[in-house]
Amino acid sequence: MSRIGFNTPSSLTAMGGYGFEELIAATAVTSLTDRFAIIQAKGDTNFSFVNDVPNGILTKASFTMIDGDVLYGYFHSINVASGKLRVYFTQE
């Protein structure tokens, strides 16, 4: 049986190997270099973001997720208006 390597970029991202942050209302990630592949709602949350994945929602000034919802993409410039998010860092 083959094993799934933890050191692949996708595994590191999915398992928090690059790190994660929890963002609460009135906080933002404005670093030009921080990128996130996964956004998870920790309660009902309203926020804005920029997503650099083609064929997806690229920029959203107001987006709402309910508790437990997850978005996948290549996000930056996240600003939480209300609620709480867990965001997982990724590498290019």
Write the layout of secondary structure elements.
Layout: H1 9-14, E1 20-24, E2 28-29, E3 36-41, E4 45-51, E5 59-65, E6 70-82, E7 84-89
Antiparallel strand pairs: 1-7, 2-6, 3-6, 3-7, 4-5, 4-6
Can you walk me through this structure?
The chain has one helix and seven strands. The model has no long low-confidence stretch (mean pLDDT 87). It is mainly beta and 92 residues long. It has a single domain, classed as Jelly Rolls (Sandwich), CATH 2.60.120. The longest helix is centred in the N-terminal third of the chain and has 6 residues, at 9-14. Strands 1, 2, 3, 4, 5, 6 and 7 form a seven-stranded antiparallel β-sheet that branches.
CATH fold category name: Jelly Rolls
Shape: globular
- Fraction of residues in β-strands: over 45%
Element-by-element helix/strand order: HEEEEEEE
Q: Regarding CATH, which class?
A: Mainly Beta
Which secondary-structure class do the elements indicate?
mainly beta
Mean pLDDT rating: 87
Radius of gyration: 13 Å
Low-confidence stretches: none
The termini sit apart by 30 Å
Q: What is the domain total for the residues? A: 1
Helix content: under 10%
Q: Tally the beta strands.
A: 7
| Count of individual helical segments | 1
Overview features:
single chain, mainly beta, 1 helix
